[in-house]
Give the backbone structure.
Amino acid sequence: MGGLYLLDYGAGNVRSLANALNRLEYEFKWVKKPEDILEADKLIFPGVGAFGSAMELLASKNYVEPLKQYIKSGKPYMGICVGLQTLFHGSEENPDVPGLCIIPGTVKLLNKTDKAVPHMGWNEVFCVRRINGVNEDYPQDNHHGIEQGTVYYFVHSYAVPFTDELKEWTLATTQYGKEIFISVIQKDNILCTQFHPEKSGYAGLRVLKSFLQGKGIVNNTSGQFIIKNPEILPRDRFTKRIIACLDVRTNDQGDLVVTKGDQYDVRECNDGSGVSGQVRNLGKPVDLARRYFDEGADEITFLNITSFRNCPLTDLPMLEILKRTSETVFVPLTIGGGIRDVIDPDGKFHSALDVAGEYFRSGADKVSIGSDAVYAVEKYLANDKKLSGNTAIETIARAYGSQAVVISVDPRRVYVDSPANAMGHHVIPTSYPGPKGETWCWYQCTVKGGREGRDIDVHQLVTTCEAMGAGEILLNCMDKDGTNSGYDLELIQDVKKAVNIPVIASSGAGREEHFEKVFVETNVEAALAAGIFHRREVPIQSVKNYLKERNILVRNIVSTL
């Protein structure tokens, strides 16, 4: 049989890798049984999720021994993310679960003292190998398509620290905060990346292409290269993400369109009467997503604001949008709306984990949970602050890793004249007084697309969701939505101090300087915008150029293979 095989063990988004191979015009087969592994001439293991879950799923399918045998056979093997980590003896993520034991050492949790964890976003790799006797960098073909100074997409909480013992395995390293870990492993027939090449735009596709073509250093039997130890830089090369958001809903004609609200109202009101008109139609979702990829968006988020009012597993148009988008868009995709336990029209129960799994199989990399997160926190507080283990956040994070779970927060300001009148809620002083001159406020969480307020504040929500296993916060603000007046910096600063996971600033962007301000004053990892990108009022490239001129690191666009 032979040929290229992909190992799908049932966790996370492997559709994106399949689409990347299709884009490179390579035929492949899926591993469906243990014997297929040994039949392969080339094998790619696109690991996604937690170390323990990956190893347990491999064991349940009887893949472990054939996988070890294949790797030791000398045939080309590529592992991605967890596909790299499983080569080691074990991981701090699941200390009782053994790895494949190909490489000595343990995968360790990233240090949280000086940075957000998970490490989520675009970061630079530093190729530590040099041709013996040559000072300058050598061609990227010798680096398996990796180009010095290029950034790639990472999403992980655990990594392999660079050590002298692992020098012979190390092709490249990456610095995050003051910590250096191995980002590319290569020795003999093995090539593994901690980053996701299938999510790293055309730069990542080059790495896949190099592996498939058999380029790059394979061994060092002739002593042709040396290892240059990486140095800790005063500042890492981790870039700020610019995210394009597409609010998708059904219009009055029944078509899925991209729309945009003003303080969450998505209908036109042109005559001044206050009577709502047609749903704003700003374009077709797949076409817009592709446009944003070409323009340099670092991620794309779909928020289905129709909210899957029946059953998301039967929402075939939205699932089709994800599938079609992932065919040509090679950056991370997030989907939000309806991530909850549901009962379909036939009375069959589907857990939130089932719903998330369908999205991942359709091309999503992350799922965004909104209203259900608020309900989960309410139950947590009512249960004496005890985690149940069965919320959507906990079950999805356990199966797919915390990096797959985003909490979408829809808060609104509640002004009070003093903290004593906040009913026990977390308050902050504000420089923007309320209608009666109040100088204190708290942020009330809402559900159902902002239509209903709950007795939960943002501080309670984000800290509890982090404890449940969420990996990122998408921080909206109803008061700022559609105003083009800038992000709510007071809200964002408060949340950034409260959690150790990445935060995405959302709501209010209207000019390039708003992005600079939110990055400089709050140190968030990412900023999201919608309407100004849809209407081309502020192009993505203009934002990035503006930030680069002010020494804020952003990803450069690689426009071709």
Notes: The longest strand covers residues 241-250. The two ends are 30 Å apart (CA to CA).
